[in-house]
Amino acid sequence: MKYEEKPDIGLKKLIDEGLVKPDTKVYASSDEKIEGHINKDGAIILIIDGKEKSFPYPSGAARAIVNLSVNGWKFWRIRENERFVELSEIKKRYLHT
Hints:
There is one protein chain. This protein is an alpha+beta fold. It has one domain (11-95). It is 29% helix and 32% strand. The protein has helices at residues 11-16, 58-66, 72-75, 87-95; strands at 25-28, 31-38, 44-48, 51-55, 76-80, 83-86. A hairpin with a 5-residue loop joins strand 2 and strand 3. The longest helix is centred in the middle third of the chain and has 9 residues, at 58-66. The two termini are 25 Å apart.
């Protein structure tokens, strides 16, 4: 059996494909009052201790909130049609196109 490595899909790719728009708000699954936004480069921007911080990966942004290693694709959600959808679900949509 031949192993073929697939490149990781980042938020920038989801933006480029039109699945996520720049400046989309993201909400923590643990507390929807914790929010940030996705910039045009696919980074998650959070305000921490009064300072804007940029995280190139969802897991890094999640770790900054909970101080634990967590799957950021599951931790962060966006609103679609009045419901929350995990970033992992958006990523699955891309992988199935």
